[in-house]
Amino acid sequence: MAADTFPPNVNGAARFVERLAAGLVRRGHTVHIVAPAASRKHGVFQETHDGATMTVHRLFSLRWLPHDWLRFALPVVIQRNAARILDEVKPDVVHSNSHLIIGRGLSMQAAKRGIRIVATNHLMPENMIEFTVIPKWSRGALIRWAWGQTRSILGLAESITTPTRNAADFLEKNTGLRNVLPISCGLDAELYTPSFAPRTENRILFVGRVTGEKHIDVLIRALGRLPQHLDAKLTIVGGGDQKRNLEVLAEQLGLADRVTFAGYVTEEELRASYTRASVFAMPSIAELQSIATMEAMASGLPVVAADAMALPHLVHDGENGFLFTPGDVDEMAARLTDVLEAAPERLDAFKNESLRLIQAHDINRTLSTFESLYRGEPVTNAAADHQPEQARDEA
């Protein structure tokens, strides 16, 4: 499995690779991860992730200075490193989860050796641009070039996947590739603890990278426009380059005492944060699935999310929460108010619907689907996308 980002990195792509790899190990497969070294220490290690031990090939890496933590393997030697690893391991299949550096090298070398390739896309070039020093006037050309590179590398794969139908359509539109399979990242819902206890306070929770594409500023501004009697408080879990800017914004809006920047937390602390929360908020406009939103749903939370990218596949307006127009502070505030002022019976209905919807994203379904792809077996549309209740009734 090729990954340009892998734990200890904290992001959706790294989490997906970790969970998938651990699940495959528990099913008896031998899994090798190829990823950048998390420090100067590189080599081959036996590492335990998500409770499973696997072999991790940590390649020499350097910090990407425009980003607050990202490290990258060296492109100039990736072909040599990929060839060496493939010849040593002799895998039955290569699963690329990145097409920039490591996934590019392993895919090209696997194609030369006739090794089956499965590729999962987690990246939109538009998001990558944020962490470059490229002038704005040239970014359009760079994005077009990046999509062309995406097409050439993903085109080597026998099967191409991405987390949702919406993301698959977006990928096909921008690359010209066809038959992209939507396969949910999946999660083990049993690890999360819903709470139906009566509310004693109003806690809004955001979990994710603290970066520009997440539009957390919209959420903070919306907090300031909630009715005062709600006395709502916001907890932001995660780290990123926008943390200081958002702290300043909270101070300027007089909200510093109501916004907590928790930073990175342990898995146990994260699950406890979900259980304590009243509502989960996701203002991002660039989610190819949003594992954090799935975790919130598994914790029985109503969700208020931007009506963008993959989020409408998870949040069904009026059923397990609400959607709002991306960037619209007043509308987000109104939808948060709808949840926080909801009668107990309606709030329980939101929670139960989140729990019902998340069942289709069971990690075992995801694991079985990828096992079929690794064997070269055809799979049907594996997306766990759902229509809202009204649409299902009409159908």
UniProtKB/TrEMBL annotation:
This is D-inositol 3-phosphate glycosyltransferase. One of its GO terms (biological process) is carbohydrate derivative biosynthetic process. It comes from the Bacteria. Residues 197-348 form the Glycosyl transferase family domain. InterPro entries: Glyco_trans_1, Glyco_trans_4-like_N, Glycosyltransferase_grp1. Pfam families: Glyco_transf_4 (PF13439), Glycos_transf_1 (PF00534). Residues 10-190 form the Glycosyltransferase subfamily 4-like N-terminal domain. The lineage of its organism: Bacteria, Bacillati, Actinomycetota, Actinomycetes, Micrococcales. One of its GO terms (molecular function) is glycosyltransferase activity. It comes from Labedella endophytica. Gene3D superfamilies: Glycogen Phosphorylase B (3.40.50.2000). PANTHER family: SULFOQUINOVOSYL TRANSFERASE SQD2.
